[in-house]
């Protein structure tokens, strides 16, 4: 989506992390709200119990491409 913004295909992007590189290309507003991340699982999955983090062990997790959490996860590796 960042490329689409740069190319003028879209006018605005939400939840983009402010970085020095991005500040050279884009203007950032003040924060306009709070975003609470959620995990989404199939409704028939009884293995994962909300709030019981030990049931998350070994689970495969997908991140949307370009998501801020994906960026932070890559940095921690």
From TrEMBL:
Annotated Pfam families: SBP_bac_3
Species: Dorea formicigenerans ATCC 27755
Compositional bias of kind Basic and acidic residues: 18-28
Source species, domain of life: Bacteria
Record SUPFAM superfamilies: Periplasmic binding protein-like II
Protein name according to UniProt: Solute-binding protein family 3/N-terminal domain-containing protein
Chain positions covered by the region annotation Disordered: 1-31
Residues in Solute-binding protein family 3/N-terminal domain copies: 3-48
InterPro entries found in the cross-reference section: Solute-binding_3/MltF_N
Biased composition (Acidic residues): 1-10
């Amino acid at each position: 989506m960042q490329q689409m913004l740069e190319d003028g295909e879209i006018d605005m992007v939400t939840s983009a992390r402010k970085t020095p590189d991005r500040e050279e290309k884009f203007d950032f507003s003040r924060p306009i709200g709070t975003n609470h991340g959620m995990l989404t699982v199939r409704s028939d999955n009884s293995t994962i119990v909300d709030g019981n983090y030990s049931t998350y062990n070994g689970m495969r997790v997908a991140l949307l491409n370009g998501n801020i959490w994906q960026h932070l996860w890559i940095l921690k590796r």
